[in-house]
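FIELD: query
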Amino acid sequence: MLVLDLGITQRKAHFPSMKEALGWSAFWIALALLFDAFLWFEQGSGKALEFLTGYIVEQALSVDNVFVFIVIFTYFAVPREVHHRVLFWGVLSAIVFRAIFIVLGAALVAKFHWILYVLGAFLIFTAVKLAVQTDMEVHPERNPVLRLARRIFPMTTNYEGGKFFVRHEAKKFMTPLFLVLLMIETTDIAFATDSIPAIFAITRDTFIIYTSNIFAVLGLRSLYFVVSGFMKEFRYLKYGLSLVLAFIGVKMLIEQWISIHIVTSLIIIFAIITLSILISLRHEKKELKETAR
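FIELD: result
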């Protein structure tokens, strides 16, 4: 599907319209739900509910990724028509890195069960940090990967279409677009340290953890173009995400004494996210009315 997306739908680089972005988002969500139905028939309702809960959590947390991606693209003044290309390669790297993180995380949890309590406390800390965070800032000078890249390759002053590297007078140059790609990838790795521990509170099945992650990641590019069009309307979503992380963190800390059923978790998570979106939309509608007066 990724090859089809880049090779056919993005053969001519462009910034998708809202209608196109919503269509692709609906397609990726439908694909995830079809996979969930397949799990229901193959492995039972328990695994299917675990996947669905994990997918909703990962999809919701992806919105926070998207906000940062928008800031990065704005900071580097990336041409709109190449956003999709950067996100495509960012998704490919995310698939690889998340596989590594999940396998290592599962191995550590299996050997040292107390790590779950550390992860739970970390998620609560992240939830508080997300709730009190005011502005999202980009600091490329603090990114060691970017500093290393600049030392290895000379860089062109301007973008060269969708190219990451170009040759001038037999010398290889890095374009600013490659720096943006590195920034997107390192940011996604940082976000994976939040999202992957979150799903360990839902299931220990590495297959469910990985597939729910990947289906969320596959829809990340379409989600980016949708959210970039509705960014102002989602002002309270970060508080909803903060509550979701806090709930999952508490769930990990108390699971030895109090077990919260997967259906209950699914309902709570879905309700928090839905409520935060509805409050955001209501507030935006109220502001528009006041402005009209």
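FIELD: remark
The chain has a mean pLDDT of 80.
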